[in-house]
Amino acid sequence: MKKYAFNDITLMQYIFLIAGIQMGVGLLQLPRELAELAGTDGWIAIVICFFIATCSSLTIVQVMKRYPDGTLFDLLKRYAGKWVGRAAAVLTAMYFAFFSYTIMVRAVLFIKSWILPKTPDFVMLILLAIPSYLLARGGVRVLGRYAEIVLYITLWMPFFYLLSLRESNWLYMLPVFKEGLHPILLAMKPALYAFLGFEASFLLYPFLKSKQYASRGIVIANVLTLLVYLHVTVTCNVFYSPDAITHFNEPSVNLLKTMEFRFIERLEIVFLSFFIMIISTTWLPGLYLSVFSINWIFGREDHRKLLQWVMLLFVGSVIFVMPTFNKTDKWIEVVNLTEMFFGYLFPYILWLYVWLHDRLRWRRGGT
């Protein structure tokens, strides 16, 4: 009997979960970060990093095929021993907990700066924590359905960005490679960060019903992320001048302030509400996976009680930490550096270890 069959997810849910984790805060700030380093050539860095992320994603899938009915921890327990699996579970829980906390706090700061500037941080975090708990306690299947619903109700958003193209100047994009290859290589750093999230497949893989399509699914998730990032980045680049785009922290939101309709004036407020839903598909899986990792150590399947304590810890810490954009920038840097190892380096190390382990065992069996 499959260990995780009771909470399995479809291929579509698997795709949208991974794409949702990838499209977090980067959706708002990536155009500015790329413009600061590579100007209007930042889109090239996105394309290059897409291929790098896809290679790492496929490596994860190939590794997990060695133990298809278990998570990363089960795989490590089988190949390296019980304590290695437990140590990996503790580190993964810490990573996903800090990741989720950082994204939630960042979302609170966005809401404060754009909509509710005088509302205390802990009050807004409580308002986010309650629905987050109700969703995360349902497990991977509920989170997969939520990610699917969020995609369907936000499909209209990219079309509104097309309206800004009436006042755009495509000459801003020329010439390509304005300052050579070096700025593009520098811009690959934030672009690589923006694609991170596929490493969640280490834990989501055993929940997937149709595992034979896992490679296809993770590639489609990366393609969706690529198309969204390219759409937003190119739209911002042709709307703003190369110098003007760097003056806005969230150019993808500021762009909406220029649009007005008879029935609505501040379109960016409406969009930000939907942006928060998109960002929630980033912190919710991370929140669940952190609790799942701890419970894996103790062999528990009920995540609700531990999830309650984690949410209380998140809310309580905000009162003492008093987060700001500068503080969360440093937190995001720590998260990104950890993700770089977990997402881009660790899959190849693990694949090599598993391959050598199986090959040596086969040789010993042959002799």
UniProtKB/TrEMBL annotation:
Keyword annotations of the record: Germination, Membrane, Transmembrane, Transmembrane helix, Transport
InterPro entries: Spore_GerAB
Coiled-coil ranges per UniProt: none
Any Gene Ontology biological process: spore germination
Subcellular localization, as worded in the UniProt entry: Membrane
Main location: membrane
Transmembrane segments: 12-30, 42-63, 83-103, 115-134, 146-164, 184-205, 217-240, 269-294, 306-325, 337-356
Cellular-component GO terms for this entry: membrane
UniProt xrefs under PANTHER family: SPORE GERMINATION PROTEIN A2
Name used for this protein in its record: Spore germination protein (Amino acid permease)
Natural source organism: Paenibacillus tianmuensis
